[in-house]
């Protein structure tokens, strides 16, 4: 028997923020991130977070920051314009007392981080990581608040506006272990993207490479060069 906690909205949410305006979002991929390794090890040593957790937080933070900087350079975002990053967290353990450990795909909560564009763009990566972690730490409280209708806007009513980035973590799904007789895959990519939704997928490069592979379709063509420059600078450890 399935156990679902999501609510279905009967009305469409009208975007109130800048949208892609019909422009096609462009693909970009970044592989093997030395800068990631340095930050992950630092966070792991500082607060005891697992390397997997730290890697996710850093990838989310830097991708969000790079995208925000690219949009600001193009004049799309004022200093006080709110920008958002959203990812999904397992909540089965918060819903049923004594539930077996593990992840359940039908029981999740959209964790959303919101800051001004200036805060994200001008801060150090560790500052953006801290914002991501603060949102993760609020998960139990936010789920409890949602369960009693404590939010003016249902957090499950997602807004696919151009100032929002959605992140999915593929690092532990086992895609790179699949072998149909030809060996492990060299690259795994999403089958399709939705042009109305700015997306980043965090994966892992095939063995023996180490690090992270960040695949995105999150900026219009006009913003792609600066976004790539920002991500490449981070990959180079700058």
Mean pLDDT: 80
Q: What is the percentage of strand-forming residues?
A: 15-25%
Give helix % range.
25-40%
Q: Could you name the CATH topology?
A: Chloramphenicol Acetyltransferase
Low-pLDDT regions: 1-22
Major sheet, described briefly?
A: 6 strands, mixed
Gyration radius from CA atoms, angstroms: 18 Å
**How many DSSP H or I helices?**
7
Q: How far is the N terminus from the C terminus?
A: 50 Å
* Overall structural domain count: 1
In CATH, the homologous superfamily goes by the name Chloramphenicol acetyltransferase-like domain
State the order of secondary-structure elements, H for helix, E for strand: EHHEHEHHHEEEH
Class from secondary-structure proportions:
alpha/beta
Task: Give the CA-based shape.
Answer: globular
CATH architecture: 2-Layer Sandwich
Which CATH class is shown? Answer: Alpha Beta
Number of strands: 6
Strand order of the largest sheet: 1-6-5-4-2-3
Write up this protein:
By secondary structure, this protein is of the alpha/beta class. The protein has a single domain (25-173, 184-235), classed as 2-Layer Sandwich (Chloramphenicol Acetyltransferase), CATH 3.30.559. Helix content is 34%, strand content 18%. It has 7 helices and 6 strands, in the order E-H-H-E-H-E-H-H-H-E-E-E-H. It has helices at residues 34-47, 51-73, 92-95, 117-122, 125-137, 139-147, 224-235, and strands spanning 25-31, 82-90, 108-116, 164-169, 199-203, 213-220. Strands 1-6-5-4-2-3 form a 6-stranded mixed beta sheet. Helix 1 (34-47) crosses helix 2 (51-73) and helix 2 (51-73) runs antiparallel to helix 7. The longest helix has 23 residues, at 51-73. The protein is globular. Residues 1-22 have low confidence and may be disordered. One of its GO terms (molecular function) is acyltransferase activity, transferring groups other than amino-acyl groups. Pfam families: Transferase. Belongs to the plant acyltransferase family. InterPro entries: CAT-like_dom_sf (IPR023213), Plant_acyltransferase (IPR050898).
């Amino acid at each position: 028997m399935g156990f679902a906690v999501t609510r279905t909205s009967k009305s469409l949410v009208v975007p109130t923020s800048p949208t892609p305006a019909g422009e096609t979002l462009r693909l970009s991929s970044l592989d093997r991130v030395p800068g990631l390794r340095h930050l992950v090890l630092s966070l792991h040593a500082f607060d005891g977070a697992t390397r997997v957790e730290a890697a996710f937080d850093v990838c989310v933070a830097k991708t969000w920051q790079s995208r925000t900087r690219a949009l600001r350079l193009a004049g799309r975002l004022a200093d006080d314009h709110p920008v958002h990053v959203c990812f999904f967290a397992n909540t089965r353990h918060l819903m049923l007392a004594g539930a077996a450990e593990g992840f359940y795909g039908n029981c999740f909560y959209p964790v959303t981080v919101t800051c001004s564009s200036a805060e994200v763009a001008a801060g150090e990566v560790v500052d953006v990581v801290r914002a991501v972690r603060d949102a993760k730490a609020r998960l139990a409280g936010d789920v409890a608040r949602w369960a009693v209708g404590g939010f003016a806007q249902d957090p499950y009513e997602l807004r696919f506006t151009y100032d929002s980035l959605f992140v999915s973590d593929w690092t532990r799904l086992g895609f790179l272990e699949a072998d149909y007789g030809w060996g492990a895959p060299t690259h795994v990519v999403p089958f399709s993207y939705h042009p109305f939704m700015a997306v980043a997928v965090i994966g892992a490069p095939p063995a023996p490479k180490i690090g992270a592979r960040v695949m995105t379709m999150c900026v219009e063509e006009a913003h792609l060069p600066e976004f790539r420059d920002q991500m490449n600078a981070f990959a180079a450890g700058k």
